[in-house]
Amino acid sequence: MSRVTHAVLGAPIDVVSIEGAAERILAWAKAHESRYVTICNAHVVVTARQDKSYLDVIAASDMATPDGAPVAWVLRKSGYGSQRRVCGPDLMWLLCSLCGEQEVSIYGYGSTDETLGKLSERLALAFPSLKVAGLESPPFRPLSEAEDEAAVARINESGAGIVFVGLGCPKQERWMANHKGKVNAVMIGVGAAFDFHAGTVHRAPQWMQRTGLEWLHRLCSEPRRLWKRYLVTNTLFVIGALSQLLKLRA
User: Fold this and answer.
1) Which domain holds residue 225?
2) Could you tell me the pTM of the whole model?
3) Which of 4, 33, 71, 104 is deepest in the core (most CB within 10 A)?
């Protein structure tokens, strides 16, 4: 299947369903191809617009899914009327289910030991046949060259076909770009998905997810940490998106 992308504020975003994304990722994983997938919400797109080096990271990814409802909305308004969100937590959960069925092992890199412990328990209950090749919480500091090489060796020796990376934006995207060609698996930057699935952070109710208000739930849950991301960044996204769509119709 050929890849179709459309620029959203300059960032090339894939026109793809969650099922299509999972199918493509699994094919890469079974072949142990070194690739990386970025999950792009409004924050990612606006950050990429402001930072050329980060835009290059998104543009070089093998898939950039429309995570946020606003990003998917721009794609629909740009002629891709059936496009829906392909968000990190949902894609991760679907892939875990499929990996259990198709004997593809996974690895988790990021978050904290406490969260990973709870995530391990949840995955074991939800997907008894899923092989979790490893769960690793790296230090919250830059790794030395030797430490990084050791981490790559652990991942590759585990035999994992998919590595879920939960280091947060933009660290996780830069990490994946820097490790393409080193990690023999598909790397997917899933942000807060580890916390959501572990139950350490509560995800928005389904009705808020369906109506594109998941960002509001997260803002109310962590206002001091997220107010700038959602209020400032979302405003910049709306301005940029409206400008893009007006030019498209001119």
Assistant:
1) 208-249
2) 0.91
3) 71
